[in-house]
Amino acid sequence: MAQGGRKLGLWAALVIVAGNMIGSGLYLLPATLGAVGSITIFSWLIAGGGALVLALVFAYLGLLRPHADGAVAYATEGLGPALGHFGWFTYWVTCCFGTSGVAVAATGYLSFFFPALKATGPGLVSSIGIIWLMVGANLIGPKLMARIGAATLLIGLAPIVLAIGVGFVSFRPEVFAASWNVSGRSDLAATLTSVTPIFWAFLGLECANIVAAIIDNPKRNLPLAAVGGVALALTVYLLASVAILGLLPARTLAASTAPFADAIRGVAGGLAAALVAACALAKTFGALGGWILVGAESNRSGAAVGFLPRWTSDVTPDSRMVRDLVLVGLIMSVSIYASASPTLGKQFGVLINVTVVISMVLYLLCSLALVKMATELETARSRIIARIAGGVGALFSAGVIAVSDPALRLPTLMVAVLSFAFYGVSRWRRLQPA
Predict the structure, then answer these.
(1) N or C: which end of the chain has fewer CB within 10 A?
(2) 19-426, superfamily in CATH?
């Protein structure tokens, strides 16, 4: 832990939170939202408001349990072991299945240079190949993955910053207005159903809790950094979304496999577009490798406490996690194959929608846990704010699940059934005589 003057101030902590969120989650999202239109600006505001509340929820949880084993431990602390297992399982599923969407985004930007990858077959091969390439990087060691992540962090911000700048210089109001709602649904329905895919860009907001141990005056600065970091990310997302919708018609974006590069090409030329595509591609590789490592660690921690069979993991924290990484790679490959769609944009949409709905289950459990655990806070004012945040966070999480595509409810129910089945088996095994 950092000591004394080496601790991070409020601004540094805020930048860390925002920097961990802004990036690959946005790169292919305009293609998904292009099927709806410019009205999704309101969806961004709704999703952003919910993300701000959930950031406050995790900020308080971080203060109450600064040494908890990540966000998945809060449900156990506040709601009991069965729901704690459910929280872990949803996080594990999110890491294994949701990360596949990043691989699809990488293929999308790679297809800018190799158009043949836009076809379903070559696209599947590319996405699965990229997954195993990053599994291989993780097998070499976490230090290599850390170097890749660091090298691609700033590179990955370039397409977004460039799109905002070019977009507002060359913004065409008539294009934005003509694309207002091309979904064929009512404005209300189009707005609400778009909240689910948009929230993909906010997944990981709980990373503020990682900052808790290294910032100065965490009781004051952690909630401010958590909420402020999400607010900064939301501002960037809104600017980028407005800019790109003012450059290309919604239906053109919906058909794009590299929306930021295509938007820049029409204004700044092919060379600039190629640079944007290369930067986005680099960031998706870095993000994919990092999430594969997180998924493997989630697998290891679950096997260590009996949530998964021990043969699925190397278990020991200082091991290379070969089994964990291979299992995560296999599950991701299966999810890529199972979600195959006519276009990369549609496949990306399927993966992120399922991921967001399952993630909202974890956020719902953590919000409810805060409502119960708020009694431990020192002041009445803090207890009231925490309970309000937990209640609103739980309502928002449940609302996102409710307004999502009904077809997503069956996968969510299956995750719940599998979670409690695994939990029952793990409890039964513990009760057996040695």
Answers:
(1) C
(2) Amino acid/polyamine transporter I (1.20.1740.10)
Sequence ranges of the domains in the chain: 19-426
> Which one, of 421, 296, 414, 288, lies nearest residue 358 by Cα?
414
Report angle CA 2, 285, 281 to the nearest 5 degrees: 120
What are residue 215's phi and psi, to 5 degrees?
-105, 150
Which of 41-50, 148-157, 160-169, 314-323 shows the lowest per-residue confidence on average (mean pLDDT)? 314-323
φ/ψ (deg, to 5) at 8: -80, 140
> Do 354 and 96 meet the contact criterion of CB atoms below 8 Å apart?
no
Conformation bin of residue 140: beta by default, left when phi > 0, alpha when psi is -120 to 50? alpha
CB 199 within 8 A of CB 400: yes
Task: Convert the pLDDT of each residue in 229-279 to its tens digit.
Answer: 889 889 989 999 999 999 999 989 988 888 988 888 888 888 888 988 898
CB atoms near residue 249 (< 10 Å): 19
> CB-based contacts of 206: which residues, under 8 Å, 6+ apart?
54, 58, 71, 366
285: nearest Cα among 159, 112, 149: 149
**Which DSSP helix (H) or strand (E) runs through 11?**
helix 10-21
> pLDDT tens digit string along 363-396?
999 999 999 999 999 899 999 999 999 999 999 9
Structure tokens at 7: 């601790």
* Inter-residue contact 246 to 167 (CB < 8 Å): yes
Residue recorded with tokens 């910032």: 215
**Bridge partners for 215 per DSSP:** 8
Residue 413: CB atoms within 10 A of its CB come to 10
Q: Mind giving me the DSSP string for 276-315?
A: HHHHHHHHHHHHHHHHHHHHHHHHHHHHHTTSS-GGG---
Alpha helices in 305-408 (DSSP H): 322-338, 344-373, 380-403
